[in-house]
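Example S7 (structure tokens).
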């Protein structure tokens, strides 16, 4: 059984931006030349250029652009709710330090978002980490109850996995578990872990790769950055907003974080449901 200082407890999520799109300037110039127009965006952010290009294609408004450049153009897009063009701006993220409870909510965001999550069937969770809710972590009594419960998990998980793995060496037990006769060690180990994971709590830390377009990200921010959202995922939404305002200020600069009584923040914007 790990001691308290050996059990890693996480209270903050991490957001990594692993990929962002690029623009093929040669092809864009070829399109403009073929249609007898000359135009160049003043933004150096590929996602912003892609969004502006998509919007201008809708009306072929390259020849006489409004003043104000990309920032003004995308502000107008959000203002009039022409959100479909935001679907062309795409990023790849990796979220870590989040609980299984959070990802159960996250994956409900299906339109415009794709997911690849750590598999508990293949990954050994005997040294798993756990995400503690702030409302528990800040109360010594509640923290003690939570920690006592979580500290029981690794031993139970390991015991179940080891005993079930050994049991599967018996052909009759393997057949009952729907394991093919003569299954190799990897197959037996996977079967053992998928059974043992049943004792893992929603607090178990996980990692999830997310691909999302700007419109889907905005929807996520407004839904999960709300004061009425679950605190852990609201914290993630705020972290994503911090990242996206650096990645693309013209697409996400309209959002503001408003302090809440619990020390967290709510995400707000005048341009909802773009």
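Recovered sequence:
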């Amino acid at each position: 059984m790990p001691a308290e200082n050996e059990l890693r407890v996480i209270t903050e999520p991490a957001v990594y931006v692993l990929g962002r799109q690029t623009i093929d300037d040669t092809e864009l110039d070829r399109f403009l030349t073929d249609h007898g127009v000359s135009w160049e965006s003043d933004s150096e952010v590929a996602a912003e250029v892609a969004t502006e290009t998509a919007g201008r294609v809708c009306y072929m408004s390259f020849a006489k652009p409004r003043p104000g450049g990309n920032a003004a153009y995308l502000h107008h897009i959000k203002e009039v709710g022409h959100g479909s063009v935001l679907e062309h701006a795409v990023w790849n993220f990796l979220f870590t330090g989040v609980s299984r409870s959070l990802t159960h909510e996250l994956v409900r965001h299906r339109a415009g978002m794709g997911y690849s999550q750590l598999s508990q069937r293949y990954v050994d969770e005997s040294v798993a980490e756990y995400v503690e809710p702030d409302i528990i972590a800040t109360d010594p009594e509640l923290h003690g109850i939570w920690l006592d419960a979580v500290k029981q998990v690794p031993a139970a998980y390991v015991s179940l996995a080891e005993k079930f793995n050994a049991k599967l060496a018996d052909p009759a037990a393997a057949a009952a578990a729907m394991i093919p006769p003569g299954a190799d060690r990897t197959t037996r180990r996977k079967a053992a872990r998928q059974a043992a994971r049943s004792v893992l709590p929603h607090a178990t830390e996980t990692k999830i790769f997310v691909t999302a377009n700007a419109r889907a990200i905005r929807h996520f921010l407004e839904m999960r950055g709300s004061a009425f959202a679950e605190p852990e995922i609201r914290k993630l939404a705020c972290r994503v907003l911090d990242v996206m305002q650096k990645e693309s200020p013209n697409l996400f600069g309209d959002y503001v974080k408003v302090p809440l009584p619990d020390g967290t923040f709510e995400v707000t914007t005048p341009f909802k449901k773009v």
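Notes on this example. The mean pLDDT is 93.
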